[in-house]
Amino acid sequence: MVHVALLEQERDLDRDQDHVALAEIELCGELMIAASAAVEERLSAARIDEVLKVEHLPERLPESVSGS
Questions:
Q1: How crowded is residue 43: how many other Cβ atoms within 10 Å of its Cβ?
Q2: d(CA 18, CA 11)
Q3: CA 26 to CA 14: how far, in whole Å?
């Protein structure tokens, strides 16, 4: 029984890794499209973040620094 459970966990892990790989491939494709459409030689960090839909959260100081 334990062997079957381990095989199922391994299959689930493989499936999760497949989803991650497909997402990475899609993001690379989006970057290639943006780069080919860009006028400038290189994409700026801000443009890459925009293409990848990265949101920057306001930075917080570590609690030891902020005194909280």
A1: 16
A2: 10
A3: 18
